[in-house]
Amino acid sequence: MFFLDHIWLIPLFPAFGAAMMFFFGRRLQKATVNAVCVGVVVIAFLFACFAVVEYTHFAHGTGRPFQRIVYTWLGSGDGNLNFTKRDGTLAAFNADAGFLLDPLSSIWLLFVTGVGMLIHIYSTGYMAHEGGYYRFFGYMNLFMFSMLTLILANNYMLLFVGWEGVGLCSYLLIGFYFHRNSASTAANKAFIVNRIGDAGFILGALTLAWYLGSFRFTEINSLARSGHFAIGDPVLTAAALLLFVGACGKSAQIPLYVWLPDAMEGPTPVSALIHAATMVTAGVYMVARSNAVFVLAPKAMLVVAIVGATTAVFAASIGLVQNDIKRVLAYSTVSQLGYMFLALGVGAFAAGVFHVFTHAFFKALLFLGSGSVIHAMSGEQDMRNMGNLQKRIPTTYRTMLIGTLAIAGVFPFAGFFSKDEILWQTWTKESDAYRLLWFIGYATALMTAFYMFRLMYLTFYSPSRMSHEVEHHVHESPKSMTVPLVILAICSIGAGWLSWPHSLGGSAHFEKFVEPVFAREAIVLEEEGKSAQLASGEKEAEHTDKAEYLLMFLSLGAAAAGWGMARRSYLHAGKGYTEPIAVKAPPLYTVLYNKWFVDEAYDYAFTGRRKIDKIRLGVMGAGEASSWFDAKIIDGAVNDVGWVTRTVATLSTWWDKWIIDGLGVNGPAILARMISYPARLFEWGLVQWYALVMVAGLLGFGVYYVWK
Amino acid sequence: MVPITTLHYLVVAAALFVLGVIGVLTRRNVVIVLMSIELILNAVNLNLVAFSRMWGNLHGQVFAIFVTVDAAAEAAVGLGILIAFFRNKETVNVDEIDLLKW
Question: How far is B64 from chain A (nearest CA, A)?
Fold first, then answer.
C-alpha cells in the first residue's frame, strides 16, 4: 500500500521539476533540464502505475474509491468557517488537500502521466533548437502538476486549483513564442474564454455546496444517490448546467470553443499534450465526476448531448477545408470532444470516458506526427505546400496513418471501438430526438474520415508542392521524436481492445473497470427509460446484436466513404489544386473556410472590435452606450440640477448681498454716516483744544454773568 | 504791615489757578500738563485751607488732604497711561495724541 498511501506525491514530482526550472533553469545545461524535467514525469508515471496496481488490489473490482486526505486546506473541521445551506442548516466550509483514486481517476492518471511522459520525451527532440528551453520544460512540468492535482482532487475546490493551474499553463504555453503577436493574442483569447467557463464552474460547485453542504465528490455523490432528491430537481439542474458551462470552456464546446483552434500558436508538443490529449478532457472528467448530479438533471443531460453533437458536426465541417495541418487537427479535437459530451449527455459515461482514453493516444499521435512533419518541413504548416512525404519521412508517415485510421474509426483501431460505442449508446436511447443526435454523430464520423484522409493525402501522397529550398532540407525526425510516435501508434491500435464489445465476442474490460463509478447512474437511467416506454422493453434484447452489427457496418462504411472521397479528390493534387467543395458549392466553401464566421460574429456581438462609424457594436457597444447614457443623461441630469441650484444660489447671494445687506442693513448705516459727517468735523481729538474750549466757555459764561 | 487776609490767599490761589490753566492749555509735554493740573489742584487746596482758617473749623483742611491724596492717585494713573502710551507711540507730545476722535 506504499504507493497508494503516498499518492499525494504524484503531483509533487513535476512540481519539483517546475520549481527547479523556475529557480535554477537559466543556469542549467540542456542535458540537466532533460534529466530533471523528463525524469520527474517518468517517476510520476511509474508511481502512478504502481498506485493503480495497488488500487486494483484494494478495490477488488468493487470500484470503491480510495481517499487520502493529507490535511484540511481551506476552512477547518471545528466549524469556524460555516455557511448556511439552502435548507437553513449550517455546514462547515471544508476543502481538503485530499486525493481520490477510483477507476475514473485511475484512467486519467495513467494516460495523463503516460502520454505526458511520451510528449516530454518527444519535446526534447522537437524543442532542441528553440530558445527558452528550460522555460518550456518548466511550464510543461507545471502543467503536469496542475493536471494531476485536477485529476486526483477529492473535492471541487482542489479540482478548481488544478483547473485554474492548467488554464494558466495553457496560457503560458500558447504564448510561448511571445514575440509573435498572434501567439500572445491567442494566449489571451484562450485565457479570457476559459475565464467565462471558470465562472460557470465555480458557481456550479458553490451551488452544489449550498444545496448539499459539501465539496467532496464522495459525499456529494452519495447524497445525490441517496434518493432524497427527485429526478429533475431544479437546483441540481442549475448546478449541472453551470458545471457544464465550465466544461464548455475547458473542453472547447460551443459556444466557447473558439480559443482551441487559435491555441495552435503554441509549440506542437503543447498542442498534443494540453490541447488534444489531457487538459481539454478536463471538462469531460469533471462532468463524468459529477455524474450523480447530472443523472438527476435529465434536462441538463439533454443540453450536454445536444451541445456535444452540435459541436462535433460543426467543428468537423470547419475541419473539412482548413489548410493549416495543425488547425485541421484542432478542429478534429473539438469535434471529438463533442463526441465525448454526446456520450456523457446520453448517459453513456463509460463510453465517453473510453473515447477520452483512446482519443488521448491517437490525437497525441496525430499532433506529434504533424509536429514531426512541420519539423521536416522547416516550420511550414500549410498543407498546400506539402505533398509526397511518404517516402521521405517513413516512420512519421506510418504512425500518422495508424492515427488516422484510429480516428476515422476503422476496425480494429482504437477509435472504432470508442466511437462506435458512443453511437450505439446514442442509438439505443429510445427516442426520436436521440436518433437525430445519432445521425449527427454519424455524419460527423463521415466528415472525420474525409478530413483526416484529406490531411494524409495532401501531406504524404499527392505530388510534391514544396519549394526547392524546403524540399532540400526534408529529413526524418530524431529518435527522441519517433520513438514516442511508435509507442503512441501501438497504443492507438491496442487501446481499443480493452473494451472489445460483447457483440464481437469480447468482454469489455474497460467498461467493467469504470462501471462501478457510474453503476448507480446506470440503474437510474434505466428506470427513466423504462418509465418512458415499458412496452418495448421486451423486444430490445433480441434485436440488439443485429442492430449493433448494422451500426458497426454503417460506421465502417462512413470511414470507407470518407477515405474514398478524399482519395479521389486529393491523390493527384498538384500545385494549385482545387478543393472539391470550392468547385461544387463556392458559398459553402467560403463559409466553412471562414469557420462559419463565428469569430467575426463574436467580434460583432461580444469583443467590441466592430464599429459602425464610431459606434461600437455588441455587448461592449451596449456597455459603451450605457456608459454614455450614464455620463450624459444620468450624470447630465444631475449636473443640470446642480447648475440650476447653483444659478439660484448665485441669484440668492446677489439678493442677499446687495438688497438685504446693501439696502436693508448697510444703507441706513451709510446714511447715518453721511449725515454724521459734519458733526465729526468738530472732533479733532486733541485734549488741549477741548480744554481751551472749556476755558473759553467758562470765561464766556463769566463775562456774560458779570456783564449782566 | 498789612495783615494777611483771606483775600490775599484767594488772589494767590487765583494766580496759581490761572498759571495752571495756562500750563495745561499751552504746554506740549504731557508730564508738564500733569504738573500744571497739580498746580490747579493746589490752587483749590489753598482756597480750601484759606476758607477753613477764615471760618475757624477744620473741614476744609481735611478736604484739602483728600484732594492731595486724590492728586497723588491721579498722578500715578496718569503717568501709568503715559508710559503705556509712550511704548506705543514713542512720544509724550500732546499734539500727537489725537486718537480719541469720532
Answer: 24
Subunit contact B94:A684, Cβ cutoff 8 A: no
Closest to A253 (Cα-Cα) out of A293, A221, A216, A281: A281
* CA A604 – CA A610 distance, rounded (Å): 5
- Strands A66-75 and A94-101, sheet pairing: antiparallel
Residue type at position A62: T
Q: For the residues A112-126, what does the mean pLDDT come to?
A: 93
- Closest approach of chain B CAs to the CA of A698, in angstroms? 12
The confidence band for A599, taking pLDDT boundaries of 50, 70 and 90, is: confident
Give chain B's contact residues with A (Cβ, < 8 Å). 21, 24-26, 33, 94-95, 97-102
> ipTM beyond 0.85?
no
Q: What is the pLDDT of residues A653-705, one digit of tens each?
A: 999 999 999 898 999 999 998 998 888 787 777 888 888 889 999 999 999 99
Distance (Å) from the C-alpha of residue A644 to the closest C-alpha of chain B? 47
DSSP A97: E
Instruction: In whole angstroms, give the CA distance from residue A616 to residue A400.
Output: 46
Cell 435529465 locates to A298
Q: Which of A683, A688, A692 is closest, CB to CB, to B101? A: A683
**Tens digit of each residue's pLDDT (9 = 90 or more) over A574-594:** 887 888 888 888 888 888 888
Contacts (Cβ under 8 Å, ≥6 apart) of B5: none
Residue A143 has pLDDT above 90, yes or no: yes
Count of CB atoms within 10 A of residue A274's CB?
27
Is A684 in Cβ contact with B24 (below 8 Å)?
no
H-assigned helices in A251-386: 259-262, 268-272, 282-289, 291-295, 298-319, 325-345, 349-376
**Contact between A375 and A462 (Cβ < 8 Å):** no
| pLDDT tens, position by position, A481-524 | 899 999 999 999 888 888 887 777 777 778 888 888 887 666 66
- CA B99 to CA B102: how far, in whole Å? 9
Q: Which domains does chain B have, with CATH numbers?
A: 28-90 (1.10.287.3510)
Query: Per-residue confidence at A28, pLDDT binned at 50, 70, 90?
Result: confident
